[in-house]
């Protein structure tokens, strides 16, 4: 059964991006600290077309996650901030459905990535992604606002948090703001502690 999955790096104080995230600072000011743990792993480097890298339990966790999705859903803000760094060969290699208010034709990139711009809202983007993914899962890439919408709607099945031991301070994007006033419970299914991050896999009840 196709599931909706998300994996996000988060600071100890709950931020997934630093202040002033945008084209100039795709991860926000100081936000790159949240992703340092991944850059040396073999599976991440392979997705970027870079040879070498470390392997072990942390790399195995990431490699399994990379294999699972057959389509991606993301918000317009994430697309705008990532468009330049991703370049002509973005790291998705599958259909990507961008939730936006701005209509435009699909954008075909190298490596199998096709950006589809969906103006009918996140539920319609999710339906399109389900059709495209087949028997694989759907990766909810972000940003924070879209993840919060999916949590409020009960559409997110599994969340992998990479908790990094830094305090991001105020002004960035917090993951769990605006998720409503309903008590939400997750079931912890895996914890992997590594030098630069603690990885916590959660499933929705």
Question: Features of this protein?
Answer:
205 residues; alpha/beta; 9-stranded mixed β-sheet; two-stranded antiparallel sheet; 5 helices; 11 strands
Report on the architecture of this protein:
GO terms for molecular function: 5-amino-6-(5-phosphoribosylamino)uracil reductase activity. There is one protein chain. It is globular, with a radius of gyration of 16 Å. The strands form 2 sheets. The chain has a 9-stranded mixed beta sheet, with helices on both faces. The protein has a two-stranded antiparallel ribbon with strand order 2-9. A hairpin with a 4-residue loop joins strand 10 (186-193) and strand 11 (198-204). The chain starts with a strand and ends with a strand. With 205 residues, it is an alpha/beta fold. 24% of the residues lie in helices and 29% in strands. It contains 5 helices and 11 strands. The mean pLDDT is 91. It has helices at residues 42-47, 57-67, 76-86, 122-133, 144-153, and strands spanning 4-11, 15-17, 69-75, 95-99, 107-108, 114-118, 137-142, 158-164, 173-174, 186-193, 198-204.
The whole-number mean of residue pLDDT values reads: 91
Strand order of the largest sheet: 5-6-4-3-7-1-8-11-10
Coarse morphology: globular
Q: How would you spell out the order of helices and strands?
A: EEHHEHEEEHEHEEEE
Percent of residues in helical segments? 10-25%
The span between the termini is 16 Å
Strand content: 25-35%
- How many strand units? 11
* Quaternary organisation of the protein chains: single chain
How many helix segments?
5
> Nearest-angstrom radius of gyration?
16 Å
The main pleated sheet reads as: 9 strands, mixed
Alpha-beta content class:
alpha/beta
Low-confidence stretches: none
């Amino acid at each position: 059964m196709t599931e909706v999955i998300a994996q996000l790096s988060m600071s100890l104080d709950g931020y997934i991006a630093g202040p002033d995230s945008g084209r100039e600072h795709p991860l926000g000011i100081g936000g790159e600290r949240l992703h340092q743990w991944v850059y040396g792993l073999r599976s991440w480097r392979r997705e970027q077309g870079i040879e070498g890298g470390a392997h072990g339990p942390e790399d195995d966790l990431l490699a399994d996650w990379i294999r699972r999705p057959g389509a991606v859903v993301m918000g317009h803000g994430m697309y705008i901030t990532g468009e330049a760094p991703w370049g002509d060969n973005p790291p998705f290699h599958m259909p990507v459905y961008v939730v936006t208010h701005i209509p435009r034709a699909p954008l075909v990139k190298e490596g199998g990535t096709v950006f589809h711009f969906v103006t009918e809202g996140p539920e319609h983007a999710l339906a399109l992604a389900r059709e495209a993914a087949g028997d694989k899962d759907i990766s909810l890439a972000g940003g924070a606002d879209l993840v919060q919408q999916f949590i409020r709607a009960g559409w997110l099945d599994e969340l992998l948090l990479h908790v990094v031991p830094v305090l991001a301070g105020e002004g960035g994007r917090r993951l769990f703001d605006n998720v409503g006033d309903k008590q939400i419970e997750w079931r912890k299914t895996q914890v992997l502690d590594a030098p630069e991050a603690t990885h916590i896999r959660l499933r929705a009840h």
